[in-house]
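Following up on my earlier message about iron/sulfur cluster. Here are the inputs again, as you asked, copied directly from the submission form:
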Amino acid sequence: MAPLIDPFARPVSYLRVSVTDRCDFRCVYCMAENMTFLPKKELLTLEELDRVCSAFIRLGVEKLRITGGEPLVRRGIMTFFEAMSRHLESGALKELTLTTNGSQLGRFATDLAAAGVRRVNVSLDTLDEAKFAEVTRWGRLPQVLKGIDAAQAAGLRVKINAVALKGFNEEELFAMTEWCASRGMDLTWIEVMPMGDLGNEDRLDQYWALTDLRARLAERYTVSDIPERTGGPARYVRLEETGQKIGFITPLSHNFCESCNRVRLTCTGELFMCLGQEDNADLRRPLRASESDALLEDAIRDAISRKPKGHDFDYSRQRADGQMSRHMSHTGG
Ligand code: SAM
Ligand code: SF4
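Thanks, got it. Here's what our run produced:
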């Protein structure tokens, strides 16, 4: 079967799947406090998620990242992880992983490891309990720390993802770096994106440029570039003193589009070919139209033939052009 290659000769090998729009937190940059979630019938069932992921794997996807919303609050999600492990066993899938807020890792870390998950990304912006409660609104730090303990105890490699927020976690730059180093965890900083329009938060006010963050790290550590590229918006350095890898995700820059290897599936079956563009393909209709996967595969190929060259974000100083109307919890970030 011919693998998925887009019009710019980029192979599509990485699928990110949002399995729910729901979450047990309400992070200020991600959700409004009172969210209206999708009715259940709109969501792909776990069986449909299996069919669509398996189709992508047949078409050459080698890496699957499960996200949300909070993926671990989706009822029955472990069944899905267990089902995906057959693709790891066959060798078709090289990596099965997830991005989580960590709140449910205490319950699920062992099962995730048993399903073949080797690494998890845990989102954590601050180590201060009061600030954590403020930024997540509903989250409680001790539960997340216990989740991280459980993940490490189950043998999962944990990477921490932190959204860089000016005047919020700026002063924790070194404390977070050292805490991660002491636990053998890499740390990736994400530039805040103007996703959604919640009206109650001015994300431009909180914008902390990662070039500045990197310069501050260099005041204390020897920072060496690592050539590693993931086909996404992340760049990595190593801190020579701790041996740690530090990542910088600048989703608003254009400089990674030429190597983009990924597409994103929402929990309702929309396939977004580019994080910064609204064009999407409905995969739920072909999924539900027939029990065979022929229509689904055609729809996937057709969507990939429309993958755009790059995105439209431009975060020039005081303006956020290309502002996106959908939330990260919809496309899964
Ligand atoms: N609930 C899971 C979690 O928090 O890790 C997975 C979904 S969450 C939408 C994925 C990532 O997107 C998290 O690391 C979160 O911090 C990030 N994120 C959400 N809104 C963002 C925004 N406006 N700008 C930058 N990153 C954002
Ligand atoms: Fe939930 Fe993750 Fe969004 Fe926070 S960033 S509200 S944890 S989906």
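One observation from looking it over: The first strand starts at residue 14 and ends at 18. Hope that helps, and feel free to reply on this thread.
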